[in-house]
Amino acid sequence: MITKRFFTRKVKYTGIALLSFFLFLLMFGIPTGLINSPWFSRMIEKSVSDYVFLFLNSGLLGIYTALHYYEKHAGKNSERLATGGGVINFLAISCPICNKIFVAVLGVSVIVNYIEPFRFWMGLLSTLLIIFSLGFKIKSIKHCQSCKKE
């Protein structure tokens, strides 16, 4: 039976997920140059996989954020995996040559020879980390006693 309380909670957490999705989309898309802006430019070609990882991981992180607001008592594993997945996602979709910190620390030849060829795999790893973090979060919600009372 669908009650008014169930409906308002569903709308609330769906709204959190959608708002988080758009915020992550902007947070990852603008500095990486995948979303055009006057502040950032990109020196390498944008690929389809860059956009796939941008949208997919922004959506997964939006869902994770909504679940986090639903149940805040998750273990550190899900938070670490989600954070690691987000950081690796940013590195995977960004322009490695455009990142001045990378260039200063590693040099252009290291970036072009060792990081650029593995950007797709980094994106895949980030997606898997975020999916695992969602799994941990869902598992903790299933075992949450205070969540069952609501």
Reconstruct the topology from this structure.
Elements: H1 4-32, H2 48-70, H3 76-93, H4 100-106, H5 108-115, H6 119-142, H7 145-149
Please provide a written account of the structure.
With 150 residues, the protein is mostly helical. The chain has one domain (4-149). 76% of the residues lie in helices and 0% in strands. It has helices at 4-32, 48-70, 76-93, 100-106, 108-115, 119-142, 145-149. Helix 1 (4-32) runs antiparallel to helix 2 (48-70), helix 2 runs antiparallel to helix 3 (76-93) and helix 2 (48-70) runs parallel beside helix 6. The longest helix has 29 residues, at 4-32. It starts with a helix and ends with a helix. The relative contact order is 0.15. The model has no long low-confidence stretch (mean pLDDT 83).
Summarize the structure.
The chain has 150 residues and is mostly helical.
Secondary structure class reads mainly alpha
The count of helical stretches stands at 7
Main β-sheet description: none
Strand content: under 5%
State the domain count.
Answer: 1
Strand elements, count: 0
Mean pLDDT: 83
How large is the radius of gyration? 18 Å
Helix percentage range: over 70%
Structural descriptors:
150 residues, mainly alpha
